[in-house]
């Protein structure tokens, strides 16, 4: 409703108070008030023979609140008394049913708009959920006894002026319960209350009869001691005592009583008789100098004159006569009328939802209203063209009334007397407004403005303290007028549609004026709302100084409130009839890029749907049994995250409290967070944060927005408000912020005997850490635990991801086997049927490999500094480690091959180790390698749709293994062995520690002692691998595909690895640390050239010098000119080809060991015989030739027990002497045949020894 402007008609209206008894149902009460407005005027027969009053119209004023500051003037002005009381009570069950239909219509409309259901019926469950959210809040049942008690209590409070009352009850059984039957109006519901208006009319008539009897009662005229009506405030302003026996006092009593009779005459529809009574009262009051009552009599006289002259009562009766009676309207029509008038009644229904679009009925109503306004405007324009005589025409029934000047004169006299009494300032103000309405009736607006400017200034002055700021704002009507003028500046209420159109500076100034007017009127909530609107919409247009100033003003306003202001609620200003809409302050802070985050790797489920048996294909496929879904899923009772980018646009720090997600769908528990954002500076980028929550039930969950407390206000924002308009309207909007929540799933946890590092935000899985020396082996365990109390895990697959190395692996299972099943790429171990709360042990061993032996292209690990404490126990506790990050500027390739063990920059004092143990700690530099135990476990759970589904989760145990070099391989050489099938592998072993080490090798347990940092050469006799020939490597390189070549070589490599690792074992021991291990030979096995020399070559050359077999690398001493007899035997295991013709010769060269290539010295020797000897390398029969005996195709056993393959031999002899002294090397060379087309041998298929001669000067 509009701001109430005092009018002359107020003196003619009988006040009836309407209150609810018990729980208040806003919908029912508003509809009840709307129906009461149709019976506010009734016509009664005129039994007074006065020609000026042919009709009597009684006006009722139905009010919901009574102002005690004005009702205390009821004796002075009768229209301020409350003569009637109307108590309304509704049974709780009936109240719920009465609002169900109206709420259902509104909710159905909103749901159809949201879901685009134009023709399809709504889902009953969705409609029920919406109705539950929008239903009115009831406090339970309210018995009829409570209604009666409350009704009687209200009557007692109004006992001073109450004439008659009625108790209107809905939904109660017929009963009086202490209330007179005539006062009870009982109905089943508001729709069935066709006699409600008649009951109200009877109440008005009952009051009318009482007031009429008071009007005609003139007995006080003949009393010697008539009653003396007075006001409590009058006693405070009276000076001295008054002689109550004097004639002047009696005249005062008669004047006041006549004035009251005149008030009753005006209330009973007799303005002409009221004017006469006011005139008589004025004479007595003027004679007795009763100025307050004289002022009231003057005002009553002027009002009576206006009622006669302008006859507004008759106009109101004519207007009401055109309104339909409620009894002729259907319930649907009543609800339509209620919806149209809901906002104007100043009453809200909790979280009431209003339709954002208008249906055809609303469009028709709006069109009719627009046509009516246009018609009224045309009538006013026509009336403005009328002459002054027509405008000044008299509307009284007799045509004889006071002139406007005479009426204004009486008002002015009343104001002059009112201003003498400070406690009557409110009455004085209302009298002034009524006086100005005289000019309005005659469209004399200039005079009206001058009159108001002259008299209203005193009330708005700061020195006038009788009125507070709220009253002053009502007087000048600044706030409602300014607020309603905002659309003219292009300012709209809805922030979503508030695209800035027009001059921004003017709009900001207009909004600031509205804010200041609301602040002056003590509308603090409205002032906060307007100030937040300015900051939200116009912040980019404000400079920093203005923005900071507004923030300070907002902070002061917030501190003045007792509770937190909520921007999400409507603000209803009943005094001004204004309802401020909610505001979404999305700018502070600015949130963007909402994304639903997948669960962490150990929690994220993967749905595996079991395929129908009938759909399986007859050809095997690994995809026929199950189909996998990689969609994002959340799990019940599992913490979830939504990532969002946030930035503070303000030039000051911004604190955000209780920032939490808003959702709809299944149950969700949001976790509020607190943020402190730094001031905005140019170039500042948004920061990504995670908003947390936990679903509590399965189903569909939609992220709708967020809530927070910022700048001292509670803010609720929708994601739709943040997104651009085209994105909001897209069909994929809802799916982008909707996630499916699965039912609770079993969770697999891992417990390890290894020490585990604390988790971080980047690494949600705790990393198991261990430090080992290269070559050491340790056994550990992992316990797999099903933490669920009721759900079993169907199967668990274990996959180990570790660096691919040559030789023994880094990690190897000891109580389980890794198998490759059909359709799998990698082998894995399996655990079946892990019951609830069951735990199983998995044992494994960790071997300290050589990091340089990793076969893939990845880095061999970062360098790590560790401290080793000497111990005298074999326990792992002796290996105490403290890890530090190490930054090396060298390239990765160099860091992987070169390790520094003497870093002087290591500061031991910075480590968390006691000072007394510093002298015991030995620093080492190791390599950090990583591996993973990956457990994929599957559980079968029946879904909400009753279909059995498989859900797979992954649990991971990362391992960080720091390998410290102990005794490692630095160089290697391969020399001929005792026979063609054996080789001496000469390994240079380096002691990288600062302690003495012991080496044990060969089958006879030979032992060598090593000093710290010493390199020791260890010869190990190793048999050649009979399963692989040197030609196999050549054949592997003949494939066109590089990948195929690599695969074939890897197969050959694996075959050789196991053979060589079994025979090439060198054990080390560090007695001071009590550590033992095996020298890792992975770096040796990584060399293909090394492996090629440990296979049985196709052609082998054996040398005999001067009749002695040459089997070692020792130098042979000869003199200059001494004849050397060299006999060579060429042995072949060539199969499947024709014989190969070639030439056998000798090559003489010198190796100066200066890092430069060798120097050929053929001139330093003289041959005594042929330089080249032709040879024929014969081929052996293939294994498929059945004519050969079985022994010829099998391997032969040598004298030392090693298996040797069958072979063909050819011999050749050379004689030569040396001409110069020095160290000379002789190597046999098998050359190609000169015959074209002959098969040839590759260089790596021939094994030839190199003989070293130490030539000395000949002694005579």
UniProtKB/TrEMBL annotation:
GO cellular component: trans-Golgi network
Annotated ranges, domain Trs120/TRAPPC9 N-terminal: 12-311
Biased composition (Low complexity): 1182-1192
Sequence ranges assigned to domain Trs120/TRAPPC9 first Ig-like in this UniProt record: 601-714
Region annotation (Disordered) ranges: 223-242, 1182-1206
The organism's place on the tree of life at top rank: Eukaryota
Listed Pfam families: Ig_TRAPPC9-Trs120_1st, TRAPPC9-Trs120
Feature: compositional bias, Basic and acidic residues: 233-242
Similarity remark: Belongs to the NIBP family.
Protein name: Trafficking protein particle complex subunit 11
């Amino acid at each position: 409703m509009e701001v109430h402007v005092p009018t002359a008609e107020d003196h003619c209206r009988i006040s009836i108070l309407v209150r609810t008894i018990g729980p208040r149902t806003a919908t029912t009460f508003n509809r009840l008030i709307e129906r009461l407005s149709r019976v506010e005027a009734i016509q009664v027969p005129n039994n007074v023979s006065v020609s000026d009053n042919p009709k009597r119209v009684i006006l009722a004023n139905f009010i919901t609140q009574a102002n005690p500051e004005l009702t205390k003037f009821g004796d002075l002005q009768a229209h301020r008394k409350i003569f009637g009381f109307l108590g309304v009570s509704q049974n709780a069950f009936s109240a719920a049913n009465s609002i169900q239909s109206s709420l259902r219509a509104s909710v159905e409309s909103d749901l159809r708009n949201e879901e685009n259901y134009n023709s399809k019926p709504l889902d009953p469950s969705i409609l029920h959920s919406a109705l539950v959210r929008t239903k009115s809040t009831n406090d339970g049942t309210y018995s009829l006894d409570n209604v009666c008690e409350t009704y009687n209590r209200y009557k007692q409070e109004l006992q001073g002026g109450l004439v008659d009352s009625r108790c209107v009850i809905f939904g109660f059984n017929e009963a009086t319960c202490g209330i007179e039957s005539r006062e009870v109006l009982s109905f089943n519901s508001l729709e069935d209350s066709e006699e409600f208006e008649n009951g109200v009319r009877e109440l008005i008539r009952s009051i009318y009869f009482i007031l009429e009897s008071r009007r005609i009662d003139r007995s006080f005229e003949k009393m010697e001691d008539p009653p003396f009506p007075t006001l409590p405030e009058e006693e405070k302003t009276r000076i001295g005592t008054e002689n109550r026996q004097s004639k002047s006092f009696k005249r005062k009593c008669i004047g006041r009583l006549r004035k009251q009779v005149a008030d009753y005459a005006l209330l009973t529809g007799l303005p002409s008789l009221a004017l006469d009574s006011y005139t008589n009262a004025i004479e007595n009051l003027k004679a007795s100098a009763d100025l307050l009552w004289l002022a009231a009599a003057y005002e009553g006289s002027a009002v009576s004159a206006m009622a006669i002259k302008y006859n507004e009562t008759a106009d109101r009766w004519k207007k009401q006569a055109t309104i339909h009676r409620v009894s002729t309207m259907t319930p649907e029509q009543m609800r339509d009328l209620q919806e149209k008038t809901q906002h104007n009644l100043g009453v809200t229904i909790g979280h009431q939802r209003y339709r954002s679009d208008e249906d055809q009925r609303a469009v028709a109503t709006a069109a009719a209203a627009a046509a009516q306004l246009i018609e009224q405007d045309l009538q006013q324009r026509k009336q403005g063209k009328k002459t002054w005589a027509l405008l000044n025409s008299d509307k009284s029934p007799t045509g004889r009334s006071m002139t406007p000047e005479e009426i204004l004169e009486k008002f002015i006299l009343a104001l002059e007397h009112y201003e003498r009494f400070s406690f009557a300032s409110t009455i004085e103000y209302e009298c002034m407004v009524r006086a100005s309405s005289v000019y309005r009736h005659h469209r004399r607006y200039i005079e009206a403005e001058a009159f108001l400017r002259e008299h209203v200034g005193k009330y708005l002055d700061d020195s006038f303290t009788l009125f507070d700021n709220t009253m002053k704002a009502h007087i000048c009507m600044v706030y409602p007028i300014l607020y309603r003028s905002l659309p003219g500046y292009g300012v709209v209420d809805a922030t979503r549609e508030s695209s800035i159109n027009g001059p921004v500076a003017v709009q900001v100034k207009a909004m600031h004026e509205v804010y200041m007017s609301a602040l002056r009127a003590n509308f603090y909530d409205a002032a906060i709302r307007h100030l937040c609107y300015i900051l939200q919409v116009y912040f980019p247009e404000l400079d920093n100084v203005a923005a900071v100033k507004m923030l300070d003003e907002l902070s002061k306003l917030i501190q003045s409130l007792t509770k937190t202001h909520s921007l999400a609620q409507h603000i209803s200003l009943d005094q001004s009839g204004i309802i401020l809409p909610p505001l979404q302050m999305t700018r502070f802070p600015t949130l963007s890029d909402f994304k639903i985050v997948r669960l962490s790797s150990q929690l994220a489920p993967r749905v595996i749907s079991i395929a129908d048996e009938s759909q399986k294909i007859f050809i095997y496929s690994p995809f026929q049994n199950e189909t996998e879904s990689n969609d994002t899923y959340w799990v019940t009772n599992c913490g979830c995250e939504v990532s969002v980018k946030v930035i503070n646009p303000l030039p000051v720090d911004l604190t955000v409290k209780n920032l939490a997600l808003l959702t709809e769908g299944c149950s969700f528990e949001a976790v509020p967070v607190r943020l402190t954002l730094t001031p905005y500076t140019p170039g500042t980028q948004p920061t990504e944060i995670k908003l947390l929550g936990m679903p509590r039930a399965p189903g569909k969950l939609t992220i709708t927005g967020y809530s927070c407390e910022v700048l001292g206000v509670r803010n609720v924002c929708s994601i739709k408000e943040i997104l651009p308009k085209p994105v909001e309207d897209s069909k994929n909007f809802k799916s982008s912020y909707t996630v499916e929540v699965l039912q609770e799933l079993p969770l697999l946890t891992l417990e390890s005997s290894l020490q585990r590092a604390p988790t971080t935000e980047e690494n949600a899985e705790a990393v198991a850490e261990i430090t080992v020396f290269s070559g050491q082996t340790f056994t550990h365990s992992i316990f797999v635990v099903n933490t669920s109390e009721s759900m079993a895990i169907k199967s668990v697959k274990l996959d180990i991801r570790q660096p691919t190395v040559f030789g023994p692996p880094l990690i190897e299972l000891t109580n389980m086997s890794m198998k490759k099943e059909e359709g799998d790429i990698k082998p894995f171990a399996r655990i079946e049927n892990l019951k609830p709360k069951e735990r199983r042990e998995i044992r494994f061993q960790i071997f300290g490999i050589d990091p340089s032996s990793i076969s893939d292209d990845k880095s061999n690990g970062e360098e790590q500094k560790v401290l080793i404490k000497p111990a005298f126990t074999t326990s792992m506790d002796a290996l105490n480690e403290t890890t530090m990050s190490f930054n090396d500027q060298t390239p990765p390739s160099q860091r992987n091959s070169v390790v520094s063990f003497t870093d002087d920059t290591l500061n031991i004092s910075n480590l968390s180790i006691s000072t007394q143990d510093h002298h015991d700690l030995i620093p080492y530099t190791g390599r950090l390698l990583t591996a993973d135990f990956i457990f994929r476990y599957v559980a079968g759970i029946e879904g909400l749709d009753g279909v059995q589904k498989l859900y797979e989760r992954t649990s991971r145990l990362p391992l960080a293994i720091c390998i410290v070099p102990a005794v490692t391989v630095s160089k290697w050489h391969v020399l001929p062995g005792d026979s063609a099938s054996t080789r001496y592998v000469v390994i240079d072993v380096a002691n990288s520690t600062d302690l003495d080490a012991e080496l044990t090798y060969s089958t006879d347990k030979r032992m060598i002692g090593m000093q710290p940092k010493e390199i020791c050469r260890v010869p190990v006799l190793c048999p050649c691998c009979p399963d692989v020939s040197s030609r196999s490597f050549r054949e592997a390189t003949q494939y066109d595909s590089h990948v195929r070549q690599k695969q074939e070589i890897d197969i050959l490599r694996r075959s050789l690895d196991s053979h060589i690792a079994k025979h090439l074992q060198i054990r080390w021991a560090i007695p001071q640390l009590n550590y033992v291990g095996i020298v890792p030979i992975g770096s040796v096995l990584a060399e293909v050239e090394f492996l090629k020399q440990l296979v049985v070559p196709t052609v082998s050359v054996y040398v005999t010098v001067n009749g002695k077999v040459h089997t070692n690398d020792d130098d042979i001493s000869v003199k200059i000119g001494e004849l050397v007899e060299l006999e060579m035997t060429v042995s072949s295991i060539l199969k499947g080809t024709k014989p190969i013709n070639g030439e056998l010769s000798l090559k003489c060269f010198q190796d100066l060991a200066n890092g430069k290539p060798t120097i050929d010295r053929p001139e330093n020797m003289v041959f005594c015989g042929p330089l080249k000897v032709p040879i024929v390398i014969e081929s052996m029969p293939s294994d498929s030739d059945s004519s050969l005996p079985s022994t010829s195709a099998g391997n032969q056993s040598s004298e030392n027990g090693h298996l040797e393959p069958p072979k063909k031999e050819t011999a050749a002899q050379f004689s030569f002497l040396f001409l110069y002294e020095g160290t000379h090397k002789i190597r046999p060379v098998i050359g190609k045949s000169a015959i074209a087309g002959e098969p040839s041998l590759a260089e790596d298929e021939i094994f030839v020894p190199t003989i070293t001669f130490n030539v000395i000067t000949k002694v005579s």
